[in-house]
Design brief:
Strand order of the largest sheet: 1-2-3-4-5-6-7-8
Mean pLDDT: 84
CATH class of the largest domain: Alpha Beta
Radius of gyration: 32 Å
Structural class: alpha/beta
CATH architecture of the largest domain: Alpha-Beta Barrel
Shape: flat
Helix content: 25-40%
CATH topology of the largest domain: TIM Barrel
Number of domains: 3
Number of helices: 19
CATH superfamily of the largest domain: EAL domain
């Protein structure tokens, strides 16, 4: 190194020392996003130096720190400033911090220092994810494993950063058993065009699911990369397409362009099957295909009377077999039209349906069309991309099957959906990570009333409750009859509490009509208890327990049903009609 180069290096080192001492380091936060819901799960803290300076970008900043032997001083300063900024901005979710495992073996590191910073700012330890990169051979003396065990014992979450680029790869993953692995951006760039990268990411996602580890895909820069990653099973992502690093991050991600519309079925909520079951993988036409080629394609595919025309994978209309045959049947028709583009006979009124649309909604769309369109096929897409053709005959067959099946599972007294449709509805909402609440209704002291007033009046009372629930839980909500005097409402509307309170009030008003004046005057009835003793039972009341399941923690309707049953049990401990709102969103581990 020349004297001039030595002087420059010395000056840069001094600049870095000043930045660290004067804390002229600026934390930026890049969102880490749930690719299923668009929810921001947390942020990775990234540091920047002063703008327009030589140490602004992290590459120059940390490269200089390595050259000047200031890596650990810089890292500790970055860590503390990032935690303070995270607290000051009141960010929700996880904070991902980059940590060098080798820092544990240095004099600068003090055990418990990070925990003390967090405690002083009221940040729980499990809100922090420690990212340990495998780009450097830290593990010469088992130091990486020591680091991971240390942070885990403290209560932190741990992530392996840049999986696939380092020295030990899968071996490191198997030994450390981290909470997260982050796939390096090299494997994400152009993944929509490179089969080898797709296979790599698909394998990593499969392994992670098998060992209970979460995968974060880094470096997502285009919509096409994002859609491909979702199809491969990736559920958490990070990259410029989802959000740039910024000093003032938002807790919402703009997911309008890539997040599929959630299913919004109508009144018959248990018809969970969607247009996807109608798909036939029919061939398609491109924008500039000729009519002659199209006629040949129809000859090779006699089952289809309509074929879609695509532009960039998206259908822009359809071509009908009959229209082409009519043109080609005229004198000189083939000679005139054979080389003309197929768009000359393009029908832009094609019925295009998203694959996740409920069959009931598809049926409603079809019946609202003019009769001339009922014979044509349905073009089915997934997030706008062509999937195949469906036909009205298959649609009618599927809906008939659903109606028969649903009738089979309906409660004979109220004709409301029974346990099987209820469970299917809850499982579908969990799978789609929907926001919903389950209200469990149960009549208090129903058996003594039924014994005293007879089963006919008891049945009328159950039917009354079913009508009350159906009337008040209309719209996007689902009402089911578990059996006896137990009912469930799956609420998707935000006014669920108001509706539940109205149901309880209307029940209290209506129940008085079921008692004779004498029992009303004394406030209840005398009847034999389960133990065989004569006991006084008050006027019937209605208990309601409500739960708000976490779709990322509840695996099936079994867990939701248990949560709802516990909430109802708490409601029944109170006197009179009572609404109990549970704060529990998942079953306790173990």
């Amino acid at each position: 190194m020349t004297a001039f180069e030595t002087q420059i290096c010395s000056e840069i080192c001094e600049q870095l020392k000043v930045l660290i001492a004067e804390e002229k380091l600026f934390p930026h936060f890049q969102p880490i996003v749930d690719l299923r819901s668009g929810e921001v799960l947390g942020h990775e803290a990234l540091i920047r130096g002063p703008e327009n300076g030589p140490l602004h970008m992290p590459g120059a900043l940390f490269g200089t720190a390595i050259e000047c032997d200031l890596t650990h001083q810089l890292e500790l300063a970055c860590r503390r400033l990032s935690i303070e900024a995270f607290a000051r901005l009141e960010l929700e979710g996880k904070l991902f911090l980059n940590v060098s495992a080798s820092l544990l073996g240095t004099p600068e590191h003090q055990q418990g220092m990070t925990a003390e910073w967090l405690a002083s700012l009221n940040i729980p330890l499990d809100a922090i994810v420690i990212e340990i990169s495998e780009q450097h051979p830290f593990d010469n003396h088992g130091l990486t494993l020591e680091a991971v065990n240390y942070y885990k014992s403290m209560g932190f979450r741990v992530a392996i950063d840049d999986l696939g680029t380092g020295y030990s790869g899968l071996k490191l993953w198997s030994e450390l058993q981290p909470n997260y692995v982050k796939i390096d951006r090299h494997f994400i760039h152009n993944i929509d065009r490179e089969p080898v990268k797709r296979q790599f990411v698909k394998s990593i996602c499969s392994i992670a699911n098998g060992v209970g580890c979460k995968v974060i895909v880094e470096g997502i820069e285009t919509r096409s990369e994002l859609i491909t990653l979702k199809e491969l099973g990736a559920t958490i992502g990070q990259g410029f397409y989802l959000g740039y690093p910024t000093q003032t991050p938002a807790m919402k991600c703009d997911s309008e362009d890539w997040l599929p519309r959630k299913r919004r079925a109508g009144s018959d909520k248990d018809m969970a099957e969607t247009a996807a079951v109608l798909i036939h993988p029919a061939p398609s036409l491109s924008f500039d295909d000729s009519m002659g080629y199209t006629v040949q394609l129809f000859k090779e595919n006699p089952l289809y009377d309509v074929l879609p025309v695509l532009e960039d994978g998206r259908p822009i209309g359809t071509v009908h077999r009959s229209d082409l045959l009519e043109l080609f049947s005229t004198q000189y028709g083939r000679a005139l039209y054979e080389n003309r583009p197929v768009t000359r006979v393009l029908d832009t009124h094609a019925i295009i349906i998203e694959a996740d649309t409920s069959l009931e909604h598809v049926s409603r769309i079809i019946t609202e069309q003019d009769a001339v369109y009922l014979h044509q096929g349905l073009v089915i897409t997934k997030e706008g991309q062509y999937q195949g053709i469906g036909n009205v005959r298959d649609l009618l067959k599927k809906i008939t099957e659903l109606k028969i099946r649903n009738a089979r599972y309906a409660n004979p007294l109220t004709l409301l959906p029974g346990n099987v449709p209820i469970n299917r509805e809850i499982d579908a909402l969990l799978k789609q990570t929907e926001n919903f609440r389950v209200a469990y209704f149960d009549i208090n002291f129903f058996k003594p009333f039924n014994d005293s007033y007879g089963y006919v009046k008891g049945d009328r009372l159950i039917q009354l409750l079913g009508e009350l629930l159906t009337r008040n839980a209309n719209g996007e909500n689902f009402t089911g009859h578990v059996g006896g005097d137990d009912f469930v409402v799956v609420f998707r509307t935000e006014d669920w509490q108001e509706r539940c309170e109205r149901i309880l009030q209307q029940f209290d008003e209506a129940i008085r009509e079921f008692y004779n004046p004498k029992d009303l005057d004394q406030g209840g009835i005398w009847s034999v208890s389960r133990s065989g003793e004569s006991t006084f039972f008050p006027i019937l009341s209605l208990s309601c327990g409500v739960v708000h399941p976490d779709p990322y923690s509840c695996l099936s309707y079994h867990e939701v049903a248990e949560l709802a049953a516990q909430a109802k049990k708490e409601a029944k401990k109170r006197e009179g009609s009572f609404l109990f709102i549970s704060r529990r969103r998942k079953m306790r581990a173990g």
